[in-house]
Write a structure and sequence with these properties.
GO terms for molecular function: 2 iron, 2 sulfur cluster binding; iron ion binding; monooxygenase activity; oxidoreductase activity, acting on paired donors, with incorporation or reduction of molecular oxygen. 21% of the residues lie in helices and 27% in strands. It has two domains: 113 residues, 3-layer Sandwich (Rieske Iron-sulfur Protein), CATH 2.102.10; 195 residues, Naphthalene 1,2-dioxygenase Alpha Subunit, Chain A, domain 1 (Alpha-Beta Complex), CATH 3.90.380. The strands form three sheets. A seven-stranded antiparallel beta sheet has the order 1-10-9-4-3-2-5, with no helix packed on it. The chain is of the alpha+beta class. It has nine helices and 17 strands. Helix 4 crosses helix 8.
């Protein structure tokens, strides 16, 4: 009997093992997460000298701190003595940085100030020791970090995204966080991105939640560098249900999109959401969603949150779980992609392939 051969991937397809394989996941950590700009917080989180945000980008522990001169600085959260992590993974404030292992002390710019038992290091030149730097910059009040200190600047990396988002009728710098949700899901991070950047599933998965709200036939998918701009026109007629009626904007556009590698966002008349998908392992992702309003938006219509995951979010989680369950099959394949309404998927595939080589 002739063995059944699994279908060969088409040029636009990622093989099934890209969603389950530990070696692929490690390659992603080494290539994508070590050399891309990633969103870590807001400028209002870093108001005063010594204010810091500590996080992990892939496997890179990183912190951003407001320096004594007011400048934003980003450094690898690793002591150059023995490699211990300096700051806990949280938001806080400090006057200096001290390693919890051997008490080596650094100023806010990363320069070594003092070591415990200096006589035990007779040849140590303190002026030659400092924390390894990373890149930090901001757009619209959002703080981004690139672990690679030699990589391209943020403005070049973002390509046409800022011009696209500047069409929104609110100042991005004025946004303030009013809600935050986080959960872990048994899904590879790439499946969740792919689901966001296509709208072909709206009529099936979101028949009651999103389809009445938007003019699905006119949703656009516009590649912008590594990223994807997705202008979503509102439905021409007011949706019949009250929650959707409140979110509907006559003649308006929801400026939605994706910033590689892991940020999705969307606007409405009264709120903005930013979400990020953080890989925990090849088949688990931590999802974080942040809701923002400007003071004027909050005064006009305070945000009313849902108890637990949103219905739309649960709908997306359910279908992405089906993808994760099916990807291990020898029959897994992608036979076709809708040229316009799944364009974002093929663009995402090409970007991932470029990083993984």
């Amino acid at each position: 009997m002739t063995a059944i051969q699994p279908p060969r991937p088409r040029t636009y397809e990622l093989p099934g093992n890209y969603y389950t394989d530990l070696d692929v996941y490690r390659r992603e950590l080494q290539t994508i997460w070590r050399s891309t700009w990633q969103w870590v917080g807001r400028l209002e989180d870093l108001t005063n000298p010594g204010d810091y945000l500590a996080t992990v980008l892939g496997e890179e522990p990183i912190f951003v701190v407001r320096g004594g001169d007011g400048e934003l600085l980003a450094m690898h959260n690793v002591c150059p003595h023995r490699g211990a992590r300096l700051l806990p993974q949280k938001q806080g404030s400090c006057k200096f940085l001290q390693c919890p292992y051997h008490a080596w002390t650094f100023d806010l710019s990363g320069k070594l100030l003092a070591v415990a038992q200096p006589g035990w290091f007779p040849e140590l030149d303190k002026s030659a020791v400092r924390l390894a730097g990373a890149q930090v910059d901001s757009w619209g009040g959002f703080v981004f970090v690139n672990p690679d200190p030699e990589g391209e600047c943020l403005a070049e990396y973002l390509a046409g995204v800022p011009d696209y988002l500047n069409q929104y009728g609110q100042r991005w710098e004025d946004l303030r966080q009013i809600a935050h949700f986080t959960r872990e899901e048994p899904i590879n991070w790439k499946f969740q991105i792919e689901n966001f950047v296509e709208d072909y599933h709206f009529a099936t998965v979101h028949a009651e939640t999103l389809t009445p709200l938007y003019d699905v036939q006119r949703i656009g998918t516009i590649p912008a560098g590594r990223h994807i701009n997705i202008p979503v026109p509102y439905a021409p007629n007011c949706p019949p249900k009250d929650p959707q009626r409140r979110r509907w904007e006559a003649g308006g556009v929801s400026y939605q999109g994706f910033i590689f590698p892991n940020i999705t966002y969307g606007t409405s008349a009264h709120t903005v959401f930013f979400s990020r998908y953080i890989p925990v392992n090849p088949t688990v992702t931590r999802f974080e969603a942040f809701i923002y309003q400007t003071p004027a938006q909050h005064a006009a219509e305070p945000y009313i949150g849902e108890a637990g995951p949103s219905k739309v979010g649960q709908e997306d989680t359910d279908v992405c779980t089906l993808l994760q369950e099916g990807v291990r099959s020898r029959a897994y394949q992608i036979s076709h992609l809708a040229e316009e309404h799944e364009l974002g998927i093929s663009h995402f595939y090409n970007t991932v392939r470029a990083y993984l080589g």
